[in-house]
Amino acid sequence: VQLQASGGGLVQAGGSLRLSCAASEGILSSYEMGWFRQAPGKGREFVAGLSWSGGRTYYADSVKGRFTISRDNAKNTVYLQMNSLKPEDTAVYYCTADSNLDMIYDYWGQGTLVTVSS
């Protein structure tokens, strides 16, 4: 399983970014997909998840209403649309996959850095 995240960068508070995660063919419809983040000096934090069927999404309270996780099966890509960004959203964001559907994410891509300036 390969996961390749991209789309990070520097944005002002209140702005938007869309992260992309290119995944190995076929896993989006079989695995739970998720995004985690790790801020400087802090542990990894769950951000958003998407069920294998695509029918359920779930979010951390800190991003609910601002972030949206989605996927494009034809492109084997998962997205994280981030709106109304805040300086506290600054972190390295990781794309992840849960192959056993047990909410334990066993595949991780490399991170992409998001920096939100105030």
Order of helices and strands: EEEEEEEEEEE
Radius of gyration: 13 Å
- The portion of residues assigned to helices is under 10%
Runs in which pLDDT lies below 50 for 5 or more consecutive residues are none
- Summed up, the helix count is 0
Q: Structural class of the secondary structure composition?
A: mainly beta
Shape: globular
- End-to-end C-alpha gap: 37 Å
Largest β-sheet summary: 7 strands, mixed
Count the strands? 11
Determine the strand fraction and express it as a percent band.
over 45%
Mean pLDDT: 96
In short:
This protein is mainly β.
Task: Explain this structure.
- The chain contains no helices and eleven strands.
- The chain has 118 residues and is an all-beta fold.
- The strands form two sheets. Strands 2, 4, 5, 6, 9, 10 and 11 form a seven-stranded mixed sheet that branches.
- A hairpin with a 5-residue loop joins strand 4 (32-38) and strand 5 (44-50).
- The model has no long low-confidence stretch (mean pLDDT 96).
